Amino acid sequence: MSPPRLTILISILATVVRSADGGTGNTPIPVSVVAEMIDNAEQGDAILVPAGIYEGNLIIRKPIVLDGSAGAIFDGLGEGTVIEVLAEQVTIRGCVIRATDEDVTGEPAAIRVIAADATIESNTIDDALFGIDLREAPNAVIRNNTIACKNLEPGRRGDGIRLWWSHGCTVEGNTVRGSRDMVFWYSEDLRIDRNTVTDSRYGLHFMYSHDTVIEENDLRSNSVGIYLMYSNRITLRGNRLTNNRGASGYGVGLKDCDDIIIAGNELLANRVGVYLDNSPSSVDSTGLFESNMVAFNEVGLLATPNTHGNVFTGNAFVENEEPAATHGRGRLVSNDFARDGVGNYWSDYAGFDLDGDGIGDVAYEPRSLFGAMLANEPNLRLFVHSPAQQAIEFTARALPELRPESTLIDPSPLASPPRINSAIAGGGIGGARMAVLAATLLSIAVACIAALGFERGLPAPQTGVRS
Amino acid sequence: MIANSAAHFSATRQTPAAPTLIGGVARFARREFRDAIASKWFALYTFAFTVLAVGVSYLSLSGIGSHGFAGFGRTAAGLLNLVMLVVPLMALTAGAGSVAGERERGTLLYLLAQPVSRTQVLLGKHLGLAAAIICSLCVGFGISGGVLAWRTGGVGVGAYTMLVGFTVLLALAMLSIGVLISVCSRRTAVAMGIALFTWLAFVFISDLGLMASSILFKLRVQEIFGLAIINPLQSFKMAVIVNMNASLDVLGPVGAYASRTLGGALPWMLVSSLIAWTALPLGLAVLLFSRRGSV
Q1: B16 CB burial (10 A radius; 0-12, 13-18, 19+)
Q2: How much is the ipTM here?
């Protein structure tokens, strides 16, 4: 569209708006004003919506660009879906959208798209049941939006971003907080990059969605970081999954997924780093885990006993409470823990590397008696992190006949941890506060000794003094 | 307050006025604190605890480059284990030596000849030793906190503060039990022996016994939980974990049961258990010490 026509359009609309809100900019304006602007616009026009609060529900039936970057706020007043897109090639950019309905029956969303080729970018969504909802909306781009969902109990929340039968979409640079899932149903050939999801149920959730690349997402403090279900040929690369420890508590969970590649990710301080439930499920498929950092989880790798056909190479398993365990009885020996003579780094490996080739000279075979007891008696998990647990492990080391079979065999464990850094910056925060705490504790000790430890006028009782 | 009237009377002839209740306690607390920090056990325990705490903090974060910030949970688990081993030993033996030692050396008679009640003497001793142990813990946690600030960028300041707080509560509980053992023992060696056995019982025997019973008798989760929190060490551990994770789910079905059924009351219940383990043995010790005819 040519610049002069845009200018004219804006000046006309600005007049309409000024008459509606008395020129203050804070009085609510009915959203029908914007609907009129769209009606008056040509196909493909860019509409720069003047600053103001627009109340009500908007339906877009024409391919236009709705630009709210001048300060447009769309307020659904807690009723229905705020903006619904029924036309192809619509762009919604720079808007603030808030207050959808709370009742899940109509699945109210801040933005719902039911058409192809939409672009939703740089919007701020607040107080939404569903954030951005794409239904049969292929080739959409959802970029750099910030989404905060309604502050409901987890069971009543909606999804921050949901794709349903929407192939070929790009979802990148979005920030979602306090939602249910960012979920992808029956949608193929997606790019999911650099999104941040926190305090939600599943960070990224795939259902029957194949052939997708997921890179450099940051998924923190959710119940599960990434849960892939019945989805094949998916690549996870350079993602960081931290502190996901809800009811399921997996960094990455795979259920019946074939030909998955998980490489260069960081899985830190989750309840379970990687959870494998019958993945891969087909006979000829594999799951490849390469160069991931799996550290500080309660369980590094947890798998159902029937799990087989996965390859683990060049990963670092560092300081997990249990490096690897099966869900119930069984062993993980039908998976390969080395490829071409390159195994994984295990921080509890007690072997040695005499020839200095970087590969440990004896196989890594973790045999934790307490771990084996846990597999049979889950209630005993109450006693983790206790000296009694250490005593049991010590006994098993001292009396080899008590040692259980190893849960896995890594024939060529790495002698030192490989360098693995995702592209996401670490959270180096609060160092000063910890230093202050440390100094406070030390000064309490010094103050105690100074106040009580020396003669200070008051004579001590005249009694025998201990040496 | 049960005052020893004879001691009180004889003492008033030497000093014009008997100290107030608080003053008497404070005087004995100060003396006990001074004796404690000048003694070898204090230096030894402080040194051992500090070295181990710094070691745990440092080693659990080594070899992982920029990922250290997420390692606080693992470090805390290591510190938890360390605290549960060392702190009860420290507090039980300190308490066990308190009265029995003086009794064996004959200095207890002199103490009781002061114009103070037996209750004041005992409370003073408990307070003084408590202050000494808190000092020792502050040194250990302070220095390892410095290591964490350097290595992790200080994630988990709140959780670390609470860990220190719960450790102090645990130490007070163990000290009370130690003092009770001491009041009941005529000789230091006996008191120390009982204290060591008590330590073994709390740290290993009760947990291992409960594990065995839960397998043998197929105990239900609520029974296991009920029996577990009788042990102050388990209460301490659960309090730390519930504070860090907002739930006990990491402790498996039993922990999940506790979190679901007790919800917000759980942390308070655990803390009350620790406070009860401090107050009841100390109260019993005061009663026994006041009633005891001989010294």
Answers
A1: exposed
A2: 0.83
